[in-house]
């Protein structure tokens, strides 16, 4: 599906840009703890951007309906990586409570992909 290919590519590009920004623009400005949080956000964003691209390819080449899995991964990035980016920059610890929502969305997306593959 074209939309998921675009969403995946945008997120992969953002993961690279935000990773570079963290490595160069935030170096010395954040503690090691918050730099690790930033790195985790970029890593998970990239993994799931690639997952969204895989969903786009599978949706276009098979009859698997993976729309919900694609949206779960997309919103997982927003909640998981997004909350970690904001947490790293603001150090407002309560924002860490949002992160697990994204994690659950990631898990649900991968389970849905697995179920679709079993059914296919």
Put the structure in a nutshell.
Helices cover 82% and strands 0% of the residues. It has 120 residues and is mainly α. The longest helix has 30 residues, at 32-61.
Number of helices: 4
Estimate the helix proportion, in percent: over 70%
Largest sheet: none
Give the strand content: under 5%
Extended strand count: 0
| Termini separation | 17 Å
Transmembrane segments: 46-62, 69-88, 94-118
Protein name: DUF423 domain-containing protein
Subcellular location: Membrane
Keywords: Membrane, Transmembrane, Transmembrane helix
Write up what this structure looks like:
- There is one protein chain.
- With 120 residues, the protein is an all-alpha fold.
- 82% of the residues lie in helices and 0% in strands.
- The protein contains four helices and no strands.
- α1 packs antiparallel against α2, α1 packs parallel to α3 and α3 (67-90) runs antiparallel to α4.
- The model has no long low-confidence stretch (mean pLDDT 95).
Helices and strands, with pairings:
Elements: H1 2-25, H2 32-61, H3 67-90, H4 99-119
Helix pairs in contact: 1-2, 1-3, 2-3, 3-4
What descriptive keywords fit this protein?
120 residues; mainly alpha; 4 helices; elongated; DUF423; transmembrane helix; DUF423 domain-containing protein; transmembrane; membrane
